[in-house]
Hints:
Blueprint: E1 4-7, H1 16-28, E2 33-35, H2 43-50, E3 59-64, H3 69-82, E4 88-93, H4 99-106, H5 111-120, E5 124-130, H6 134-141, E6 148-152, H7 164-171, E7 174-178, H8 190-199, E8 204-208, H9 212-223, H10 230-243, H11 263-274, H12 279-287, H13 301-305, H14 312-322
Parallel strand pairs: 1-2, 1-8, 2-3, 3-4, 4-5, 5-6, 6-7, 7-8
The chain binds iron/sulfur cluster (SF4) (2 copies).
One iron/sulfur cluster (SF4) binds next to helix 11.
Amino acid sequence: MSVIGFGGIPIQGVDAGEAGRVVRAALEEGITLFDSARVYTDSEEKLGRALQGRRREVVLATKSMARDRAGMAREIETSLAALRTDCIDLYQVHNPGSEEQLTQVLAPGGALEALEAARAQGKVRFVGLTGHSRPLLARALGCGRFDTVQLPFSPLESEACGDVLPAARAAGAGVLAMKPLGGGALGKLPRAALRRGLELGVDVVLAGMDGVEQVRENAAAGRAEGPLGAAELEALEAECARWAGEFCRRCGYCKPCPNGLDIPFLLLIEAYYTRYELEDWARARLAALSKRFTDCQACGQCTERCPYSLPVPELMARAAERVR
Ligand code: SF4
Ligand code: SF4
């Protein structure tokens, strides 16, 4: 498959006609991997419609948040119908967020049983796992039941080189990078960021795409040969250094906050508001929380626990100003 994959989040925001144009442009440019999820609203439907008649040319991946066998079995059928196919190449367990959830997925009666049964029936070819917690993913790979792992990975967030990537290699699993532009932080240097992600050892970078020009730029990054040039590498390193003091990896080591703030989620809301310009999404998530940016009492406990020493009180104060 192509080393640049089509991330299926952004096409939720365009109409079906534009989604079709973007997907056709991706095919013309040699992109053959398309990744979606049950929770990406109409992303699977749009991909299914746009890829009709081209199914054999592509590798289709999707994922579900179901944690038990019955729920996952239903989700697989829904995905098959939405994607207009009788077999999904890669079906992933979507982001188990805790040890308890992962244990449920792996246990008898868990979601993995449904995926393995679907594979035996020919409805799914490979079974994968996605997530944000590196220790959890590394542990899960040890069970030997996952063909792939998908996690946030970019030149800004490449710590997986020390744990998840070796665990994946040991398990014979492929590695898909989500958020290869650092959640938009490296958006000024997409070509360099995508290429560097691949150089660092992942198999595929999944870039979200909702415009034809963007598709062409991303696909060109995947076709480039040889290592990144010195000037591009220097610019990328400078950009990474610029973000180093404020880029949250959502690892959760800063928890718990004595005032009940969900620190990684609040910082994610701010990032989505400012970098992805998903202002309504961010406002709605913020409104649903009982503790918000201004509830931070600047006690500093989180900064002491954060492996990157992020100045969380300052970031909370800045977010309170920005997210309106
Ligand atoms: S603030 Fe630091 S410890 Fe907390 S989630 Fe972000 S990077 Fe991890
Ligand atoms: S500094 Fe703010 S966010 Fe961090 S632990 Fe203290 S109150 Fe919570």
